[in-house]
Amino acid sequence: MLSREQRPWAALLLPALVPLCGLFLLPLALLLPISLTSPQGLSLAAYGKLFGDSYYLGIIGNSLKFAALTTIFALLIGYPAAFGLTYIKGRLRSALLLSLFLPLSIGVIVKSFAWTVLLRSTGVVNKTLMALHIIDEPVRLIFTQTALIVGAVNIFLPFMILSVYAVVAQIDKRLSEAAATLGAPPLLCFLRVTLPLSLPGIIAGTALVFSLSVSAYVVPTLLMGERYQTLPTLIAKSFLLTREPAFGAAAGAVLLAIALAVVILSSKLGKPRG
To answer: Which of 40, 48, 254, 272 shows a CA-CA span of 20 to 30 A to 151?
Structure first.
């Protein structure tokens, strides 16, 4: 129960909660009953088909692999970048932060299509490699897993950098200096002081990028094509092409369960660190 002091603040959430529940929670609540329906009535046939076929298990594996690789590379690039932002001052920091926020105002379709232009046989990447005499003829870059990961990391990287930066910017730099004066070498200082203090940002960024990646539909479709199936593409195919709403709803329920598991796990991991 909410305390008397918390009730006025909780009331401020109502204008946001009402449309969220109507636009998101209600459709998701209808998803589960649809996944349990069949011509004969209530049935788990859709889930049996999804988990009983190695082809569909491979699609689930594709989604998890794609999301995991995107998250790992985004963290490897975004973590040091977030620290770099904290040490840069003035207009340069403002310009770099602006360069992170601006891509968020552009649709995912536009950014994904831009990568198809860059990576095609007559694109900038192939032309640059040929001009540098690294390759003699255009190589296939588009519709490969490398192109998919590169494009996805580029699209979701700002979410990782901003999540880590929000935490790292609040770390008192004197703590590292104090550890150094006490004899801690740089590596030990990072592992025992800086890394634990930045863990909330790592957890938040990882959860956000993984959730966005595992549910991405446009990025795999444009950069990889129909040959690389993921759960979102399977859901779209089930509803729009094969007309199997129960199977599509079952795949959607599994995708929702994965996203919820990531959110719950991240909240549990972040709670002990404050």
So the answer is: 254
Q: What is the DSSP letter of 193?
A: I
Do 141 and 126 touch, CB atoms closer than 8 A?
yes
Q: How many C-alpha atoms does 143 have within 13 Å on its Cβ side?
A: 7
- Give the domains, in start order, of the chain with CATH numbers: 51-270 (1.10.3720.10)
More confident residue, 161 or 173: 161
Taking each helix axis as running N to C, give the angle between helix 54-87 and helix 245-270, from 0 to 180 degrees, rounded to the nearest 10. Answer: 40
Higher pLDDT, 186 or 209: 209
Q: How many CB atoms sit inside 10 A of residue 129's CB?
A: 16
Task: Please tell me what DSSP assigns to residue 194.
Answer: I
pLDDT of residue 1: 57
Measured between its terminal Cα atoms, the distance across the chain in Å is: 22
Are 74 and 207 in contact by the 8 Å Cβ rule? The answer is no
Which residues are paired to 41 by β-bridges? 38
Residue with tokens 């918390």: 6
Q: What is the rounded distance in angstroms from the CA atom of residue 190 to the CA atom of residue 199?
A: 12
Q: How far apart are CA 22 and CA 27, in angstroms?
A: 8
Residue 88: pLDDT band (50, 70, 90) is confident
C-alpha to C-alpha distance for 121 and 142, rounded to whole angstroms? 8
